[in-house]
Each structure stands twice: as C-alpha cells, then as structure tokens.
Write the structure tokens for this entry.
Amino acid sequence: MTVRSDWLRERRHVLAPLAIVAIGGPVLGLLSAYAWESMYGFAIGSLVLAVGLAMVRQRALRGAEIPFFAVGLNMVARVCLSFAYMAVAIRTWGVSDFITYQELAVVVGEGLLAGELRQGPLLHEPVISVMYGSLYLIAGSSLIGLGLLAVLLGSLGGLCIYLAATGALGAAADRRTLIVFLFGLPSFGVFTSVLGKDSWMLFFLGLTTFGFSRALRRRAVWPWLVVLVGVAGVTVTRRAIGVIVLFALVSARLLIRRPVVTRASVLRPVVLTLAIPIAVIGFARLTDMAVADKTGEQIELVEEARLVVALEQYHRGLAVDANKIDMIGIKEQSATAILLYLPLGIFRMFFHPHLLDAQNVLALLAAVENAALMVLFVLRRRSLLASARRALDDPFLAYCWIACVALSVIISIAPNFGVLMRQRTMVLPFLAILMAVPATLPKTRAVEPRQPQPEMT
C-alpha cells in the first residue's frame, strides 16, 4: 500500500493532467454535441470555479482558518445537486425561474455588448439586469456556465459567513456546527447554487456579515466598504430584506451597551425613542408587502403571471395536499391575523414538511433534513440561550439575532413548504452563527489587590 502511494505521489504531476483530459474531454465532447454554448460555458464556468478554489486554498496555506476540504467538497456537491435540480425541474415542470434568469442574462448581456441597457423578460431593476448581464459576459448564454457561476456565488457567500463567525467568536466557535449548516445541508446548497436571486442573496449577505465582523474588530475603511457593497446588493436584489439587514446593522451598532462612552452613546436615547414606532410601522408595511406578493395580488405583466403559475406547480411537490397550493394560514391582511400566525409560520419554515407530511420522494428528502435540523436545535439550545445573553453586549451577535428574527417573521409568510425551504436560506446563515456560540464561557474574576500584612514584631 505504501509503495503504491509513493508511486502515485511521484507521478501525480503527470497523472492529474491525464485524468483531466480523460474525464473532461468526453464531457466537453458531449456538451459540444448538444450546443456550442454549453461547451464554452462549461469550460469557462469550470475555470472560474477552479480559480476560486485555488484562491481559497492559497488563503488556507497562508494560515487562514478555512476548512479547505469542506469548502472543496461542498463546491463539488453544489455542482452535482444544482445540475440534478435543474434537470428534474426542466423534465418535470418544463418552466422554472432559473430559465427566466438565463433569458434575462442573455438579453441584458447582448445589450451591454451593443452599448445599451435592454429590458429582460420580466420587469427588473437596472442594477439587477446589469448583474445578470455581467454573468453573460463571462459564461455566455449557456445555462450550464451560468449555473456554475451561481455555484461560485453561493460557495463564496457561505465561506464569508464562516469567516465572519470564526473571526467574531474566536477559537471557541463550534466549527462543526458552522460546517454542517453552511456546507452540509442539501437544501441550503441546492437553492443557493441555482441561477436566481438566492445565490446572489447568500453572496451579498455573506459580504455584509463578513465586513461587519471585521469592522467591529479593527478601525479601517475597507470593512465598511464591504458592508456597503453587501447591503446595497441585498437591497437591490430583494428590497424588503435589504431594509431588514440595514435595520439590524444600525440597531446593533448604536443600541448595544459598551463599557466606554462613545459618540454613539449620545444617539442612543433618540434611537431608543424612535425604535419602537419605526419597528411597528416597518413591520406592518413589510408584512403587507409580503402578503400581497405571496398571494399574487400585484401581478400585472402577462409574463410574470405565467412565471408565477409555473412556480406554483414547481413547488407543489412539498405541499401537504397536492391539489392545494395556498399554504398561508393568514385569512385576512391585518396585524392581528399576522401576529397570531407567526409562531406557526416560523415553526413551519424550519421543520415542515415533517415525515408524516411526505407525499413523494422530494417531500421525504426535505422531511429527513428538517428532522435533522430539529435535532440540531435540541442539541444546540444552550448555545442559542448563550448567544441571546451575549447579544446584550456583543454588537455582532445582536445583529445576527435581529436579522434572524426579523427575516423569520417576513419569510414565514409563504404559500407552501417549497417556498419556505427556498427562502429560509436567508435565515440559516444567521442561525448557524448563533448556534456556533459556545454554551459556556470561562468566567474571569477581578482580582482585588492584596492588602499589605502588618509585620509581626
């Protein structure tokens, strides 16, 4: 066994390129037989993924605490799960949201090459259009290439969350919990790797969280620039989520007690006075927007209506009743009805469908994952309590708690379990950080100065 290992180690520089040619050659040939764009997109997307993984490896070799094996394995798993997800969706439903985003990337990308900003198949903000057009400039019109870039965005977002947590919590952080959440949950990896808003959202949330954790530990300009880019990206992608993240950042930065008096201390009474009405008004407005958006009351474009119908069929497999699409337990758009529904809605977001709800294979896989998530909740309950106590003095944990709770409130208003599982990917990163907090911390006691003992005569 040792002789064989030595032989492979001595010839790895020759065997590795041969293996790449032997495996990649037939794959590129099959893809080129399907479409030239697929071959080009696969080659460029794979190159970008390889460069990104090489940069992560270089950071790990320089001493950064990065679980390179977990990141690399997660990236490979994301590629496989993402392509399997798209293949099943195209074969089963025919139309899905990632196809629409591919069309948006192609239309806008071709317009950018022509020196103009064109409108895609749906009414999107100009910045979102440019974001997807930039992906087209890299990978072309290939759905495979664009999917690989989405995988890279999701992987980098998860890595940023990991680095933010380990940097803020220090050596006491439970890295196994972070790895399970960020690199091990299948649904989290799938939905944040498919071409669409979820991969962008994880990337921008990762930038925001990473920049904020660095800004709290060092006085420099670049962490706040990273936070600014992250918040801007989140706001452009999903406006309501951007408002929540910005509110969490400002609240955590200004309201948390500190042992020393700073300039922000003067603003605390003012912010505390305005925080309650702002929170109430913002909650009412955001929930009204969320309910209206979920129920489809603001749909005007024919193309968007067609997409919504397709998405309802697309997520039907995770509903309790296959003939019932609307899983919202809110019967009227009032603050009372929404507040009464929130406990059940948040519980559904994390733990439904459960094993008794599974009506097909897809629902069964989701139920198994949710059961594992419930076990993690039970095992890490003391960490959640510890993080809540420390959030009173730690701005980073306060930011994670505010974002986690506020996002759970908004996202729990969803039409069915499929939408809940897809959109809860915006909550799981913050939950992973809170669960990674050590349950107990070493207590430091102030040592009183010893009084000089009188000399014995």
